[in-house]
Amino acid sequence: MKYLGSLVALIAAAGLLAACGSDSSDELTVYSGQHEQTMSLLTADFTRRTGIKIKVRRNSESALANAILREGSASPAEVFITENPPALTVVERKGLFAKIPAATLAKTPARYSATNHDWVGISARSAVLVYNPKLLKAAQLPNKLTDLAGPQWKGKIGFAPAESDFQPLVTALDKLKGPAVVASWLKGMKRNSKLYDGNVAIVQAVNRGEIAAGLIDHYYYYRTRDEIGAAKTVAKLHYFAPGDAGALVDVSGAAALKSAKHPKEAQRFLAYLVSKPAQEIIATSESYEYPIASGVLSKKDIKPFSELKPPKIGIDDLGDGRAALRQLEDAGLL
Amino acid sequence: MRRTRAPSVLLLAGLLTAALSLIPIVFLGLEVHHIALADVKRLLLRSHVADLLGNTLGLVVAASLLSAVVGIAAAWCVERTDVPGRRIWMMLLVLPLAVPEFVSSFGWVSFFPTMHGFWGALFVTVLAYYPFVFLPAAAVLRGIDPALEETGRSLGLGPWATFWRITMPLLRLPVLGGALIIALHLLAEYGAFAQLRFPTFATEIYAEYEIGFDGASAALLSLVLVALSLLFLTGEVLARGRARYARIGSGAQRTRTRIALGRRTPVALAGLGTLSGLSLGVPLAALVYWVQRGSSSTLPSASVVGATMTTLELSLAAAILTVALALPVALLAIRHRGVASGLIERSTYIARALPGVVIGLALVSFSIRSAEWLYQSVVLLVVGYAILFLPLALIAIRGPIAQLAPRMEDVARSLGLGPLRAFVRTTLPMLRSGLGAAAGLVFLSTVTELTGTLLLRPTGTETLATQFWTYTANLAYGAAAPYAAIMVAIAALPAYLLIRRLDMTGT
Question: Rounded to whole angstroms, how far apart are CA atoms B499 and B91?
């Protein structure tokens, strides 16, 4: 009966662990799909300033959004932070977010937050083309996203259709040029490209010359450069023409859940995220995102935020990503 | 094998386990039933799905067969020949189980970035999964009474004919079990195929969640995996046959003599060396490389200790619960064959074919709807592990149970012991090595489990795998590498114990 004994002991131990785990009613629960190193700096600084403790649940933004959709009003999440708007939008459409006070929203340019005040933008990044200067001359670099579907790009380009950073580009092109252009662009992209599982793989493939260029968000380039060393980084960044879909600036946002047990503290955390001290942390952090609130500028050697020329589409237009998914499916990319 | 009516306690325990394993499938059904028929057609009948089906089936079949060949060949070398350093080889050949698939494919992709597609995926998965065949095949090769094969030889069969007509049929159960596990694993595999750029149903399911936040279409595609798993599960039953494996008759087995390799020794050594070098050397070298190269590699923080302890506790709990759940099912399936026990056993395998994210989200739905107090608790997490890894425990126990004649228990009962005490005093002690192997397999799989853990853990609980994920997701490979190294080291311990047990049972 040795086994039975240890089983009983184990169940008891597991129960004890569970009890310890859940005994934290004074902590604010944050679901975070954001860059961990920066998040841990932000939460530590917030706790130091306010005394409010934070418990962070880390996962990909999509897994967290899918979990919140299932949890509904029973969600333990009190604040949800993502890398892209669609993960927020899909929860917003279920009416699960609390409205954010105007004072918080006023810290960030209005175009980077949800128009219905359900979530606030905290940081931004730009879509870019990463290219290998040994394989492409400056004259060959594209002006527009749609150029990449042309025959001269056959076998030269890489992108990640299943990556959550790619679908905003599809949506942006759809808003600017319509579904027919998207369909033929995706068809050309499928013909021309190698498919990767993420932005990191693309940067590395470009860097070693496996492909000449790839579509990514700017910060993956810098983070990879930090990891492998500047000396070994041959690849360079190229920005698409002003106003083109390829010049899209996408934001990371945060929202408070209606069902939060600590609604005041949740709003206080959101207010902190757009405050000067928090934005200064983002400005200097290794995540290479652009701070967008309280007038703070990035301290990193990246293209200044004011020089980015994104297309004129509202952040709400990025939608919940379902239309883009459908277009990717129809193109046979997913 | 005798067919007696199953004791109702056993049947009840088996039904409970089966019900637990079917929870995720029930919740998939609930999600799918909202989808309009037109959408079902659009999602399932597009050309990309045909590609996915071809990729998935092609790889699963090829990798299972190739793993079986590699596993049997390696087991034969180690168990039946006088190849030098047998114990060390056994260790090295089992250890790939301790390397999480996201670490091994990461290793391959770091060194050979161009490796991708079908051949790349086949290569990496066979190297990662052949131990699932090697381990049970080695155990059986060791346990077979030499008299069987000697009789074959004495009746005029050559060595090859003896192998095919006597040894292979005896290997059928463990090899089929191992190949089945590999097939189910591969249906669910995500990380390796994503990195190797080989789209399968599992990678597509992830993409549906990732960019469409679309539980319904992901559930629909998951049901295709369920259907495929049923195909393999039925196939395995048909291929298994109704043979008896327990040794009956009086007398003890004598020790076997090994085949002297002589001048063929270097060939065997080269083969085993290449196999372990590729399956262990490359992923481990990648870890070392990133610890040295990655600029983010500072010394791991205090969280390493916490994550290690959490991982150990969770894995131990998962191992014990899973084996406890698997034992009645295995007893039913082997000793009380019938429709009910067959269905119970088969139903516990299905969940293994589903990606961790599907099981995780299904259990989220389940606990939110039916058992909210369990949500994000350690208990639900451990139950999740049990659902994922029951099949591993089952294949490890089912062989040893089949090799035990129920006679001893009958004798104990005839001497006046009740059924439970008779079982505990006779069969259970003899099953110890099988149960240990099952617990070891579940333990090392839990150590390396990622996607289910991310969804089900209590907020704030971090395991080695979740920490590794956190850092690699943010490109801090140097910082991630130590977590992977500890994971491999921890998982290597049960792998070592598996070998020790094997060593004690035979020769």
Answer: 7
Work out the pLDDT band at B150, boundaries 50, 70, 90. Answer: confident
Query: Is B376 near chain A, with CB under 8 Å?
Result: yes
Give the CA distances from residue B456 to residues A332, B207, B359, B367, in Å, rounded to whole numbers and listed in that order: 33, 20, 10, 10
All residues of chain B having their beta carbon less than 8 Å from the beta carbon of residue A195 are 197, 199
Is pLDDT of B399 > 80?
no
Tell me the pLDDT band of A1, cut-offs 50, 70 and 90. Answer: very low
Spatial distance between the Cα atoms of A25 and B440, rounded to a whole number of angstroms: 37
Q: Which of B35, B206, B211 to mutate to test the interface with A (most CBs of A within 10 A)?
A: B211
In a mutagenesis test of the B interface, which of A10, A27, A79, A318 is the best target, namely the one with the most B β-carbons within 10 Å? A10
- Residue A236, CB half-sphere, CA atoms under 13 Å: how many? 10
DSSP SS3 for B238: helix
pLDDT tens digit sequence for A111-166 = 999 999 999 999 999 999 999 999 999 999 999 999 999 999 999 999 999 888 89
- pLDDT at residue A16 is higher than 70: no
Is residue A304 within 8 Å of residue A298, measured between CB atoms? Answer: yes
What tokens appear for B49 in the block?
């799905």
Stronger pLDDT, A284 or A9, i.e. the higher one: A284
Assess B370–A contact: CB distance below 8 Å, yes or no: no
Residue B247's pLDDT is 64
Closest approach of A212 to chain B, Cα-based (Å): 14
Q: What's the CA angle centered on B40, arms B39 and B42, to 5 degrees?
A: 60
Contact B317 A62 (CB under 8 A): no
Specify whether the CB–CB gap between B291 and B406 falls below 8 A: no
In angstroms, rounded to a whole number, what is the distance separating the alpha carbons of residues B105 and B191? Answer: 8
B23 interface with A at CB cutoff 8 Å: no
| Residue B212 contacts A, CB cutoff 8 Å | yes
Q: Measure Cα distances from A199 to A203, A215, B193, B288 in Å.
A: 6, 8, 16, 24
Min Cα–Cα distance to chain B from A320, Å: 7
Positive or negative torsion for Cα A230, A236, A242, A246 = negative
Q: What is the pLDDT of residues A150-161, one digit of tens each?
A: 999 999 999 999
Q: State whether B213 and A69 contact (CB < 8 Å).
A: yes
CA dist B453 and B469 (Å) reads 11
Q: What is the pTM of this model?
A: 0.89
Distance to chain B for A321, nearest Cα, Å: 6
Please check the confidence at residue B214 and state whether its pLDDT lies above 90: no
A2-11, B13-22, B360-369, B465-474: which has the minimum mean pLDDT? A2-11
Contacts with A258 (C-beta within 8 Å, 6 or more apart), sequence order? A73, A95, A96, A97, A98
Q: Give the pLDDT of residue B301.
A: 61
